[in-house]
Design brief:
- With about 230 residues, the chain is α/β, with parallel strands linked by helices.
- Helix content is about 40%, strand content about 15%.
- The chain contains eleven helices and eight strands.
- α2 runs parallel beside α3 and α2 packs parallel to α10.
- The longest helix is centred in the N-terminal third of the chain and has 18 residues.
- It starts with 8 loop residues before the first helix and ends with a helix.
- About 45% of the residues are buried.
- Bound molecules: 4-methyl-5-hydroxyethylthiazole phosphate and magnesium ion.
- This is Thiamine-phosphate synthase.
- Its cofactor is Mg(2+).
- Belongs to the thiamine-phosphate synthase family.
- Pfam families: TMP-TENI (PF02581).
Length: about 230
């Protein structure tokens, strides 16, 4: 489980990147309980969770806090990291395992100063320059994308394929990298081959007929080649 003292911090974070579910209330089909969906997804093999409460109809204030706490409890029960997207005060309030920020947010060093030295800090990067800067600022992992077209983020940048992943690895950057954007079990292989440590998804799990089955398939698609043989 995350936080096992026998595992190095970086190894634990890298391992958590493998099947990284991102979700907020607006990603969950009507009539479904987000906590139940998360439980199903973890049962299928999700290794990390990010609470991303964004877009039209997103919860705010007490309702957002209450949902964060419910989902955090599920993550704790199953020993996977609970990461908060963007909202540093929420992350601090609930003592989240980490925070994920974009390029429009404070630099990783400023974020870490607020959330504490032990917390995981993830940063979205779209260019080699942004990636290097985030790592220099102390980011623990980078989110790279969008790899493929996505229907889950209206203001997403143009899809870039696996090029940046390949470029960063070729440049000798060994930091944990997680890919994002339009990823599904059937298109994850080239991402892993390009050097990603895993995939982060919204719709491939939240809109799947079975979150558990979708997570299971993503776990299979992101297995190390050595483990498959
Ligand atoms: N950032 C870049 S693409 C994206 C985010 C949050 C959305 C990913 O969602 P999906 O459904 O996995 O394409
Ligand atoms: Mg942001």
């Amino acid at each position: 489980a995350y936080g096992d003292p026998r595992e190095s911090r970086e190894a634990a974070i890298r391992r958590a990147m493998r099947v990284y579910l991102i979700m907020g209330s607006t990603n969950v089909p009507a009539g479904m309980d987000p906590a139940e969906l998360l439980r199903e997804a973890i049962a299928g093999g999700v290794t990390c969770f990010q609470f991303r409460e964004k877009g039209g109809g997103a919860l705010a204030g007490e309702a957002k806090l209450a949902l964060a706490k419910r989902l955090q409890a599920v993550c704790r029960e199953h020993g996977i990291p609970f990461i908060v997207n963007d909202d540093i005060s929420l992350a601090v309030t609930v003592k989240a395992d980490g925070i994920h920020v974009g390029q429009d947010d404070d630099p990783a060093a400023a974020i870490r100063a607020r959330i504490g030295p032990g917390a995981i800090v993830g940063v979205s990067a779209h260019t080699p320059g942004e990636a290097r800067q985030a790592l220099a600022d102390g980011a623990d992992y980078l989110g790279i994308g969008p790899i493929y077209p996505t229907g889950s983020k209206p203001d997403a940048k143009a899809p870039q394929g696996t090029r940046l992943l390949e470029e960063l690895r070729a440049a000798g950057i060994g930091a944990p990298l997680v890919a994002i954007g339009g990823i599904a079990p059937d298109n994850a292989a080239p991402i892993m081959a390009a050097g990603a440590d895993g995939v982060s998804v919204i719709s491939a799990i939240t809109l799947a007929p079975s979150a558990r089955e979708a997570a299971l398939q993503l776990a299979g698609a992101t297995a190390e080649p050595q483990q498959q043989r």
